[in-house]
Amino acid sequence: MAPIHRVVVLAVDGVYPFELGIPSRVFEAADGRYEVLTCSVDGRPVRTNSDFSITVEHGPEALRTADTVVIPPFTTTAVTMEVPRAMTQALACVAPGARLVSICTGAFVLAAAGLLDGRPATTHWMVADLFRTWFPQVALDPDVLFIDDGDVLTSAGAASGLDVCLHLIRKDHGSEVANQVARRCIVPPWRDGGQAQYIQHPVPEATASGTATARQWALENLHEPMTLTDLAEHSHMSLRTFARRFTEEVGMSPGRWLIQQRVDRARHLLETTDLPVDEIAGQVGFAGGTSLREHLHTAIGVSPLAYRRTFRGALSPTH
C-alpha cells in the first residue's frame, strides 16, 4: 500500500466556502489514498466571503508535512500585489518538493510570492487583465481550466477546482481511480474545452439558425474528413456567418474546436482500448498516426505511447 498523500489546504480571510471544501470532498473520495488538512496562516478562525467564519484545526506548521498545498480562492477585494507578512511566513513552512496548487484567485498568492515567475499559469478570466498587469513575468493563459506545470498547478474559477483535483488523482493513480472519484462526487471526470466557453460573450438565442446542429453532426462523424464548408452547410449559413456564430456560441473557432474534439476522443480511446495509434487516428479523423501524435503533443505535451503508459500501464511497443 502506497503511503497516504497529505494535502494541506491553506485558507485565507475572504475565502470562498465552496472552493475551500473542494479538496477535502474530492481527495477524500479516493479510498484513503489522500489525507486532507485545513490550516490558516496563524491558526486562528478564517473569515469567509459569506456571513460566517470557519474554525480550522491547524496553523501554518501543518504546511511542513504537506505533499501537496492547495490555496483556494478568496474575494477579489482581498487581492494584493504583495504577499502579507503572515502569508510569507506561512509559505516559508512549505517543504521543498511539495506540490503547489491554486484555485482561481489563489494564483495571486503564488504570483506575488514569485512562485510563478517565468511559468505558465491561469486564474479566473474576470481578473485576468489585473493579473497580467500586476505580474507580467507570468505566462498567463486565461483560456484554460487549469495548467499543470509539474510541481505547480493553477486553475480557473470555482468548478475548475474540481477539474484540477481530479486531474491530480488521475496523474497520481490513473484514470480508473479518477473516474471512480468523479462518479462518487457526481461530476464529469474531464470537461471539454477551456475557460473560453464560460467567458461572458453575447450569446445568440438557441434557434434553428444556431450551430448546435453542425456540432452534433461533427461529433457523430469525427471519423470522416470534414471542412468548414461542410459544417456551414449543416447550419445553412455562409462560411463567414457560420464562423462568426460558432465562435460566439462556443468561444473558439470551428477548426480549433474540431481538433479539440478529435484529441479528446483519441485520449478516451487511448485510455480505454488497446487499439493501435494509427487505428485510433483513423477513428477520430486524423490523417494518420503522425498527425495524431503531433496534435496530442500540442494539446498535452506527451506522445500517445507515453499517455497510454501513464493511464493504462506498460503496453507492447506496437501500441
From TrEMBL:
Keyword Nuclease: no
Database matches in InterPro entries: Class_I_gatase-like, DJ-1/PfpI, Homeodomain-like_sf, HTH_AraC, INH-QAR
SUPFAM superfamilies: Class I glutamine amidotransferase-like (SSF52317), Homeodomain-like (SSF46689)
GO function terms (MF aspect): DNA-binding transcription factor activity; sequence-specific DNA binding
Short name of any one Pfam family annotated for the protein: HTH_18
Keyword annotations: Transcription, Transcription regulation
Domain HTH araC/xylS-type: 212-310
Residue runs in coiled coils: none
UniProt-listed CDD domains: GATase1_AraC_1
Record carries keyword Glycoprotein: no
Protein name, per record: Transcriptional regulator
Source organism: Streptomyces flaveus
